[in-house]
# Entry
Amino acid sequence: MGQTKSRFRQFTDQQWERIEPLLPSNAGRQGHPFRDNRKIVEAIIYRYRAGIPWRDLPRDEYGAWQTVWKRHARYARDGTWDRILHVILADADAAGKIDWNVSVDATICRAHQHGTNTTRPDQDTGGQVESPRTDPSGTVNPQVANVVTGGQRNDGAMLAEVLADIHVPRLGRGRPRTRPDAVIADKAYSSGTIRRQLRSRGIAAVIPEKSDTIDARARRGRRGGRPPKLDVDLYRGRNVVERSFALAKQWRALATRYDKLAITYRAAVTLCAILTWLRHLGETP
# Structure
């Protein structure tokens, strides 16, 4: 597995050397010891990139699909990918590669029929994943923060949960950073409640007003008050979140959700973010 990518290999040797020491070991525990870590992780990526059933993983390349699936499910449950992304984001922040003017939005990923036929309609799929902040190594979520919800949830109502998931540690001493300088969002986030929420945390709101809000203020005249300021230059960066969605959805099983469990789907989103950040950190200044 050299430096050149192929259909079956996504990590360069340098990227793999960065994450391999961060993967958990089951030495001393019941069961077979973890082997072929790189092959297993490459298999997980291949499955999500290609959008195929787990059973269709090329056996000659990756071995038994059951082993790959079990490892993916285990890493999803124990927060392995969150912890690894946490470490990588700490490096990115120390290198000045995290822009703390955070662009936020929601995107829809349709569920395939195979991802909806759980054995019990009331089965908890793990959509509400709590970040184990008590773990000394900490956790963060993709692209700095990510929340998986039902498609019916209102974008603005989920903003508080997204902001709560921002948790980037500092190398050396110091408390983790949890507050962005600004939140850049479209008109769906323009309510007074959201603006007050951001103001209370000292976060600048870079959000345009809805047309009906502008018209209502105009009708009230002087009583309508002053319109909120909009930093037009910062707002031009709102497309960052859209480009992040487009990049992640190049993995076909992220663009369409085949997973029955939200916790395994979210783990794959996090793994995609890890690979993206590793490539970003590998760029020359």
In short: Strands lie at 101-103, 110-111, 182-184, 204-206, 256-257. The first strand starts at residue 101 and ends at 103. The two ends are 26 Å apart (CA to CA). The CA atoms of residues 92 and 210 lie 35 Å apart.
